[in-house]
Specification:
The chain is an alpha+beta fold. It folds into 4 domains: 2-96, Rossmann fold; 127-182, 2-Layer Sandwich (Dna Ligase, domain 1); 193-316, D-amino Acid Aminotransferase, Chain A, domain 1 (2-Layer Sandwich); 331-427, Alpha-Beta Complex (Glycinamide Ribonucleotide Synthetase, Chain A, domain 4), CATH 3.90.600.10. Helix content is 32%, strand content 25%. The chain has helices at residues 10-20, 35-38, 53-63, 73-78, 80-86, 96-103, 105-114, 128-137, 161-172, 241-261, 296-302, 307-315, 394-406, 421-427, and strands at 2-7, 27-32, 43-45, 67-70, 91-92, 122-125, 142-146, 155-158, 184-188, 193-202, 206-208, 213-214, 217-219, 223-226, 231-234, 267-276, 282-288, 331-337, 362-366, 369-371, 377-379, 383-390. Strands 3-2-1-4-5 form a 5-stranded parallel sheet, sandwiched between helices. The protein has a 5-stranded antiparallel sheet with strand order 12-15-18-22-19. A 4-stranded antiparallel sheet has the order 6-9-7-8, sandwiched between helices. Helix 1 packs parallel to helix 11 (296-302), helix 6 packs across helix 7 (105-114) and helix 8 (128-137) runs antiparallel to helix 9.
Length: 430
């Protein structure tokens, strides 16, 4: 069997790697892929853009793939699954109507309000004067969000009214995120600990993945601007049975029911970014309509269930009763980024340290990379690599991940040095 993975980042490398590990898969095509997928066994890059929907449909038909798995959010929101369905092709991901849960933060907030899903108090604005009046009337800190897709960077946590006013002005003027910021959501800044809860949905049945936690701020100590994620680990010690039941009962199940009730049935990976307060109450920060990045990398390193079988079960609405098998060892992933990220970056720097076999239980997933004409791997994006490792404890997994990081370099590379610090503190209390 052949399968097609759409996208070119670290999540897509991890998905292609997991699919290629299935004995049922003959070849994984990745459109467009990166230098990591180009050098993965049983994987082949195809020069088709992730948002070129007609070309993707043509590729899937010509190659007679068993199914297509969509990685990034933009083609989902643009209707790639709708186009595949109309062509009679199997494609795992939500249709555009359901993907609006990620495509519009204003829609997501109003949806949660309609269906009683816990989230922060908010107001939505497309007028700067009205937004400014509201910002002046509420107490900081507050969160300013661009309504549309902004590659995971359309969120500003404003500690002062002046910061909030500036963020709203930059978004609504189009300066910060273009059309994605033509409408903004202003919401209360929730306090607590963040948690990523990702599940696979087949329209009705919900199969949760292992728990995970990522690190959005760029700098150590959770400081600096928000990014798409500077690292992640799984499992998250914060997740216990009581919290699991709250998240399923209060967030995932009403979300899937609500989407069905509104004629937007959901099939594919559903990501709920949560804030857990000190009393253990979960509130939704955001929804993503896909596997998270960088959560997918350490998660799929732990997954023992055949990923090809799992995707097929979702496509065939056979997830009811499915239980996933996970490596019991924790997994830690550390993102190595290009200088300037999440702002403007330079590309084309050669990367050293990727040669040779990877130690057992480790994996370097490529995100922003490509191959130069001379065959060298060079930087080609903001989040360049995610160095992942399994270990008997979080401490050991983290140590192994940072050993991989230490062996890799390029001009301007940087990374956080405290990934998994919350889990580490729980594992080794002072």
């Amino acid at each position: 069997m052949k399968v097609l993975v759409v996208g070119g980042g670290g999540r897509e490398h991890a998905m292609a790697w997991a699919l290629a590990n299935s004995p049922q898969v003959e070849e994984v095509l990745v459109a467009p892929g990166n230098a990591g997928t180009a050098n993965e066994e049983k994987v082949r890059n195809v020069h088709v853009g992730a948002e070129d929907i007609p070309a993707l449909v043509q590729l899937a038909r010509q190659q007679q793939v068993a199914f297509t798995l969509i990685g990034p959010e933009a083609p989902l929101v643009a209707g790639v699954v709708d186009a595949f369905s109309e062509a009679g092709l199997r494609c795992l991901g939500p249709h555009s109507a359901a993907a609006e849960l990620e495509g519009s933060k204003a829609f997501a907030k109003s949806f949660m309000h309609r269906h009683g899903i816990p989230t922060a108090a908010y107001e939505t604005f497309d007028d700067l004067a009205a937004a400014s009046d509201y910002i002046r009337a509420v107490q900081p800190p507050m969160v300013i969000k661009a309504d549309g897709l902004a590659s995971g960077k359309g969120v500003e946590i404003a500690q002062t009214r002046a910061d909030a006013l500036l963020a709203a002005e930059r978004m609504l003027s189009g300066e910060a995120f273009g059309a994605a910021g033509s409408r903004v959501v202003v919401e209360e800044c929730l306090q607590g600990e963040e948690l990523s809860f990702i599940a696979l949905v087949d329209g009705d049945a919900i199969v949760p993945m292992a728990s995970s936690q990522d690190h959005k701020p760029r700098d150590d100590g959770d400081r600096g601007p928000n990014t798409g994620g500077m690292g992640a680990y799984s499992p998250a010690p914060l997740m216990d049975q009581a919290l699991y039941e709250k998240v399923m009962n209060q967030v995932l199940e009403p979300t899937v029911r609500g989407l069905n009730a509104e004629g937007r049935p959901y099939k594919g990976f559903l990501y709920a970014g949560l804030m857990i307060d000190d009393s253990g109450v979960p509130k939704v920060l955001e929804f993503n309509c896909r596997l998270g990045d960088p959560e997918a990398q350490p998660l799929l390193l732990r997954l023992r269930t055949d990923f090809y079988d799992l995707c097929n079960a979702a496509l065939d609405a056979r997830l009811a009763g499915v239980e996933l098998d996970w490596d019991p060892r924790p997994s830690v992933g550390v993102v190595m980024a290009a200088a300037g990220y999440p702002g403007p970056i330079e590309r084309g720097h050669p990367i050293s340290g990727l040669e040779g076999a990877e130690p057992e239980g480790t994996k370097v997933f490529h995100g922003g990379t490509c191959e130069a004409e001379d065959g060298r791997v060079i930087t080609n994006g903001g989040r360049v690599l995610c160095c992942c490792a399994l270990g008997e404890t979080v401490t050991k997994a983290r140590q192994r991940a940072y050993e991989r990081v230490a062996a890799i370099s390029w001009e301007g590379a940087f990374y956080r040095t405290d990934i998994a610090h919350r889990a580490l503190n729980r594992e080794n209390p002072a």
